[in-house]
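User: Please fill in residues for this 153-position structure.
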C-alpha cells in the first residue's frame, strides 16, 4: 500500500467493498463501484479516497466467480491508473493475520490493514459490517452504500 500522505490536508475517506455484497449483487455492485469511484474522482481536489476490500473477497472471489473477479480487477486497474486515490492492497497480509489469530481468538479483530485505515481515515463509506462498526465506535462518520442508489439517478 502506498504511504498515505495528504499534503493538502484533505479528508481521507475509506471506501470499503465487502465480499458478500459483491457476491450477492454482482452486476449492481460493479455498477455501484464504478459510480462511487467516479464521484471520488470528480471530488479529488477536496477528498482523498482509500479503497480497501474485504480480505475474504480477495481470497475467494477468483475461484467462486472468476468472471466477476476479472471485472472487479478491471475496476481496480482503472482506479490505480487514474491515480486519484490510494488502493489498499494489504489483503494478503490481512489473510495471513486472520490465519494466525483464528485458533486463539474466536471473535472479530481488526486486521493490520483495517487498523491502519481506522487510524488514517477521517470517515467510512461502503458496505456495512465489522469495519463500519469500528469506525462508528471510534466516533468517525459512517455512511453505508446501497447498490440500488447511484449518484446520477
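Assistant: Residues filled in for all 153 positions:
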Amino acid at each position: 500500500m502506498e504511504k498515505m500522505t495528504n499534503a493538502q490536508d484533505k479528508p481521507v475517506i475509506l471506501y470499503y467493498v465487502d465480499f458478500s455484497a459483491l457476491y450477492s449483487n454482482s452486476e449492481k455492485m460493479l455498477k455501484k463501484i464504478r459510480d462511487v469511484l467516479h464521484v471520488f474522482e470528480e471530488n479529488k481536489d477536496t477528498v482523498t479516497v482509500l479503497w480497501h476490500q474485504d480480505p475474504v473477497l480477495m481470497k475467494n472471489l477468483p475461484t467462486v466467480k472468476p468472471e466477476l473477479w476479472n471485472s472487479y480487477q478491471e475496476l481496480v486497474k482503472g482506479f490505480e491508473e487514474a491515480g486519484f486515490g490510494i488502493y489498499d492492497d494489504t489483503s494478503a497480509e490481512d489473510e495471513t493475520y486472520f490465519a494466525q489469530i483464528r485458533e486463539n481468538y474466536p471473535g472479530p479483530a481488526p486486521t493490520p490493514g483495517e487498523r491502519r485505515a481506522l487510524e488514517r481515515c477521517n470517515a467510512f463509506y461502503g458496505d456495512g459490517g465489522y469495519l463500519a462498526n469500528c469506525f462508528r465506535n471510534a466516533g468517525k462518520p459512517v455512511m453505508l452504500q446501497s447498490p440500488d442508489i447511484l449518484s446520477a439517478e
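For context: Residues 1-5 have pLDDT under 50 and may be disordered.
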